[in-house]
Amino acid sequence: MSKIVNALLSIAKWLWHKFKTRYQITVSFNKEYGDSDDKTYISKKIITKKEKHLKFRNEKNREIEYRSSGGLNYIIEEL
C-alpha cells in the first residue's frame, strides 16, 4: 500500500513542477544587451525585484542576488 501512495505522491509532485511558472532573467552589467558580459538564468521564483536590487532562486534552488547603487539592467521573461 505504501508503494502505491509513494508512487502517487511522486506523480503529483512531478505534475506540480511541470505547470509551475518559470522565468528567464538576463542581467547586463552595462547598458547594452547581447554583450559578452550578460548572464542568463532560469528562475523558479523572484524574491525581490526593485530598481537597485534583484534577488531570485534558480532551478537548482540557489539564491542569486544582484545589487547596484546606480541601478540594474535586467530583463525578466515568463517561460
Give a structural overview:
With 79 residues, the chain is of the alpha+beta class. It contains 1 helix and 5 strands. The chain has a 5-stranded antiparallel sheet with strand order 4-3-2-1-5, with no helix packed on it. The longest helix is centred in the first third of the chain and has 17 residues. The radius of gyration is 17 Å and the shape is elongated. It starts with a helix and ends with a strand. The model has no long low-confidence stretch (mean pLDDT 89).
What's the topology here?
Layout (H helix, E strand, L loop, with lengths): L1 H17 L4 E6 L10 E11 L3 E6 L4 E5 L5 E6 L1
What is shown here, in short?
This protein is of the alpha+beta class and 79 residues long. Helix content is 22%, strand content 43%. The longest helix is centred in the first third of the chain and has 17 residues, at 2-18.
Mean pLDDT: 89
User: How far apart, in Å, are the first and last alpha carbons?
Assistant: 38 Å
Q: Proportion of β residues? A: 35-45%
Spatial shape? elongated
Helical percent range?
10-25%
Order of helices and strands: HEEEEE
**Helix segment count?**
1
Main β-sheet, spatial strand arrangement: 4-3-2-1-5
* Largest sheet, strands/sense/barrel: 5 strands, antiparallel
Secondary structure category:
alpha+beta
How big is the Rg?
A: 17 Å
Count of beta strands: 5
- Which residues sit in consecutive blocks of at least 5 with pLDDT less than 50? none
Which key terms come to mind for this protein?
79 residues; alpha+beta; 5-stranded antiparallel β-sheet; 1 helix; elongated
